[in-house]
Design goal:
- This protein is α+β, with helices and mostly antiparallel strands.
- The chain has 2 domains: 76 residues, no CATH class; 72 residues, no CATH class.
- The protein has 7 helices and 4 strands; from the N terminus they run ααβββαααααβ.
- Strands 3-2-1-4 form a 4-stranded antiparallel sheet.
- Helix 5 runs antiparallel to helix 6 and helix 6 packs across helix 7.
- Bound molecules: zinc ion.
- Zinc ion binds next to helix 1 and helix 3.
- The site of zinc ion (ZN) has 9 residues, from helix 1 and helix 3.
Length: 157
């Protein structure tokens, strides 16, 4: 199953890359442009996996081709793209934990949080204890971020 997915992914990516033969060389032609969490169904990964939930929009730096793949394939097959902080940040948000500062910068740049919220999250990252007021702000911001991520695309610059 895994190998079959890999073959489908490889073939689809190679067909849209400049290098049509060498997957390792072709894969580094691609960069991640944006990610969109989706609540609706019907979009498939280029590996043919159905109904992916985190749409990763990738673009070829040489020929400007664009493709959509799922986050599993992105992490598995396009390892040069540094995005683990993004997916672990999503996980932190789901678990009501403050995400890594890189994730905070990313959502700040995407105008999901304002200056105050960004400074708050960065200053409280990895704190063991929160005051009552901190706990309140943390919940408020993380809840707001979670909702915003359901609707907005996150652009990587
Ligand atoms: Zn896939």
């Amino acid at each position: 199953m895994m190998n079959q997915l890999k073959e489908s992914f490889k073939n689809a990516l190679l067909s849209c890359s400049q290098d049509k033969d060498n997957f390792d060389k072709a894969s580094v032609e691609w960069e991640l442009k944006k990610v969109k969490k989706t609540g609706y169904k019907g979009i498939d990964c280029i590996c043919n996996k159905r109904n992916i939930q985190k749409l990763c929009f990738i673009k070829n730096k040489i020929n400007a081709n664009e493709l959509i793949c799922g986050s599993d394939c992105l992490c598995r097959f396009l390892k040069h793209i540094d995005k683990n902080f993004y997916f672990s940040g999503l996980q932190s948000i789901d678990n009501q934990n403050i995400p890594d500062p890189r994730f905070v910068h990313l959502i700040y740049n995407n105008k999901i949080i304002d200056d105050w919220d960004a400074s708050f999250l960065i200053s409280k990252y990895r704190k063991k204890k929160y005051s009552f007021e901190d706990e309140f702000n943390k919940s408020r911001i993380l809840c707001q971020v979670k909702l915003a991520l359901e609707e907005k695309e996150i652009e990587f610059k």
